[in-house]
Automatic annotation (TrEMBL):
Keywords: DNA-binding, Membrane, Transcription, Transcription regulation, Transmembrane, Transmembrane helix
UniProt entry tagged with the keyword Cell membrane: no
Protein name: Helix-turn-helix domain-containing protein
Keyword Ion transport (UniProt): no
Transmembrane segments: 6-26, 38-54, 66-85, 97-116, 136-158, 179-199, 211-229
Top-level taxon in the UniProt lineage: Bacteria
Gene Ontology molecular function terms on file: DNA-binding transcription factor activity; sequence-specific DNA binding
Organism name: Flavobacterium noncentrifugens
HTH araC/xylS-type domain mapped to chain residues: 269-376
Pfam families: HTH_18 (PF12833)
Origin organism lineage: Bacteria, Pseudomonadati, Bacteroidota, Flavobacteriia, Flavobacteriales
InterPro entries: Homeodomain-like_sf, HTH_AraC, HTH_AraC-typ_CS, Tscrpt_reg_AraC-type_HTH
Length: 377
C-alpha cells in the first residue's frame, strides 16, 4: 500500500508540474511561440502517459488505459520537432510532419481485433496474459526502436546545427545548443533506464520494475524542474539559425578544384580586406554578429566569405570573431589605466554576452583565465 501511495503521489506531482509548465509555455509572451508550444505539447503527452498510474485510484476504462499508453509513441517525435524548431529560425509546422504520428496509429490499429473490439471478459483475459501477447511484445519492440532512432536523429541534428552555427555566427546560441544537447542526453538516460525497467517487467522480478518506475518519475521531475529553471533564468537563450545555410564541407564539394585555384588570388585580397575591416571597424563588438553582417559590410558574397574564414583561414567564424574579441580584451587587461575595470565589464565591452563563454574563449586562446592573465602582467 505504501508503494502504491508513493507512486500515486509522485505521479500527481509530476503531472501537476508538467501541466503547469505547459500552461506557462503556451501563455508567456515570446518570439519562440512554435518551440514553446511543441515543448508544451511534449509535457502534456508526458502528463497523459503517466496518468495511467492513477488507474488504481480512479476508475479508468480498459480501452482508455491502452489508448493512453500509446501516447508514448508521440512523445519523442514531438521532442524531435521541438529540437528542430529551436535549431532553425525558419522552422514551421507543416502537414508532412504528420508522418511522425504513424507509429501511434499503427499501434492502436494492432489492438483493435483482440482488445478494443472485444468484450470486457476478453479484455481482462488479454491483460492477464499481457507478457505473452504478440500485440504487447510488438508495442514494446516498436517503442524501443523509435526511442533509439529519434534520439540518434536529435543528436545528429544538434551536431549539424552546432557546426553551422560555429561557421556563421558569433553570439550566444552555441550555449543554447550545448544546453539542449545536455537536455537530450538527460532524456536518453531516462529512456535507457525505462528500457531496463521494461526488461524486468517481462521477468520474474516485476517488483524491481515498479521501484525503478518510481525512480524514473523522480528523475523526470528533476528534468522538468531543470528545464523550468533554465527557461526562467535565460529567456533569451534560444536564438535559432537559418536552415538554408550550408556547411562549408558541402560548399567545397560543390566547387570544382580548378575554380578554387583560380580564386586563390581573389581570396588573398579578400583576406587583407577582411583583416583591415576587423581592425578598423571592430564589428566583433556586436555580440550578435553574423557572417552575413560582415559580408554585407565588405561586399563579399556570404558563400565566399564562409569559404575564406572556415576553409582558407581554417577557423570557425565563431572562433575567428572571438580571437579578435580576446585580443581586444587582452589590450584592456594590460592597460594600467583600466586596472579597476572588472572582468565582467570587459567581457561586455569586447562583445561577449556571458561570463562562461568569455572565460572559455579566453582560456582557449591564451591558456589561462582572464583573472589569471591580469595577475601575470
Amino acid at each position: 500500500m505504501d508503494k502504491i501511495n508513493l507512486l500515486v503521489t509522485i505521479t500527481v506531482i509530476t503531472m501537476f508540474i508538467s501541466l503547469f509548465l505547459a500552461l506557462f509555455l503556451t501563455t508567456v509572451k515570446t518570439a519562440h511561440k512554435v518551440s514553446n508550444r511543441l515543448f508544451a505539447f511534449f509535457l502534456v503527452l508526458t502528463a497523459i502517459d503517466i496518468s495511467i498510474n492513477l488507474g488504481d485510484v480512479f476508475e479508468i476504462p480498459l480501452n482508455t488505459r491502452i489508448f493512453i499508453s500509446s501516447f508514448v509513441f508521440l512523445q519523442l517525435p514531438t521532442f524531435y520537432l521541438y529540437v528542430l524548431s529551436v535549431c532553425y529560425s525558419d522552422f514551421k509546422l507543416k502537414p508532412k510532419y504528420l508522418i511522425h504520428s504513424i507509429p501511434f496509429f499503427v499501434v492502436n490499429l494492432v489492438f483493435v481485433p483482440r482488445f478494443y473490439a472485444v468484450n470486457l471478459a476478453s479484455k481482462i483475459s488479454f491483460l492477464e496474459k499481457s507478457t505473452s501477447m504478440p500485440e504487447i511484445q510488438f508495442n514494446h519492440i516498436l517503442v524501443h526502436i523509435q526511442i533509439v532512432l529519434y534520439l540518434i536523429a536529435a543528436f545528429m541534428l544538434l551536431r549539424k546545427a552546432k557546426k553551422i552555427y560555429l561557421e556563421n555566427y558569433a553570439g550566444a546560441s552555441v550555449e543554447s545548443l550545448h544546453w539542449l544537447f545536455q537536455f537530450t542526453l538527460a532524456l536518453s538516460i531516462f529512456y535507457f533506464i525505462a528500457l531496463i525497467k521494461n526488461i524486468f517487467k517481462f521477468t520474474d522480478y516485476r517488483n524491481i520494475s515498479e521501484w525503478v518506475k518510481m525512480g524514473l518519475f523522480l528523475f523526470e521531475l528533476v528534468i522538468i524542474f531543470w528545464y523550468l529553471y533554465k527557461a526562467l533564468n535565460n529567456p533569451g537563450l534560444f536564438r535559432s539559425i537559418d536552415s538554408k545555410l550550408k556547411l562549408v564541407e558541402y560548399i567545397i564539394s560543390e566547387e570544382k578544384n580548378d575554380s578554387l585555384a583560380e580564386n586563390e588570388k581573389a581570396y588573398n585580397e579578400d583576406i587583407l580586406k577582411l583583416q583591415q575591416y576587423m581592425i578598423e571597424e571592430k564589428p566583433f563588438l556586436n555580440p550578435s554578429l553574423t557572417i552575413q553582417d560582415i559580408a554585407a559590410a565588405i561586399q563579399i558574397p556570404v558563400r565566399d566569405l564562409s569559404l575564406l574564414i572556415n576553409h582558407k583561414l581554417d577557423q570557425h567564424f565563431y572562433d575567428f570573431v572571438n580571437s579578435h574579441r580576446i585580443e581586444n580584451a587582452k589590450a584592456i587587461l594590460k592597460d594600467v589605466t583600466k586596472s579597476k575595470v572588472t572582468v565582467l565589464e570587459i567581457l561586455y565591452e569586447v562583445g561577449f554576452n556571458s561570463k562562461s563563454s568569455f572565460n572559455t574563449a579566453f582560456k582557449k586562446h591564451t591558456g589561462i583565465t582572464p583573472t589569471g592573465y591580469r595577475k601575470s602582467l
